[in-house]
Design brief:
76 residues; mainly alpha
């Protein structure tokens, strides 16, 4: 579960998002208690291990060459 300091930061970001008319997506949600607390704050879009395990293999193929190419492209 989130520490009090994290909760305060999340509340601040939520307030700013509301003021700007933004929809927030909580990333890195790992437990049911985190998901429940976020939902109680009105943050209902979540991504993280609690909802679904990473499935990079579902992207298909060997990503190594593509990632190397991206790294090389970023250097230039």
């Amino acid at each position: 579960m989130y520490q009090d300091s994290s909760k305060a930061r999340i509340r601040a970001v939520k307030g700013l998002g509301d003021e700007l008319g933004m929809l927030l997506i909580a990333q890195g949600v790992e437990t049911r208690s985190e998901a429940t607390w976020l939902a109680s704050m009105g943050i209902i879009r979540h991504q993280g291990y609690y909802h679904a395990r990473p499935a990079i293999e579902s992207l298909g193929g060997d990503l190594g060459p593509m990632l190397v190419d991206l790294r090389e492209t970023a250097k230039t």
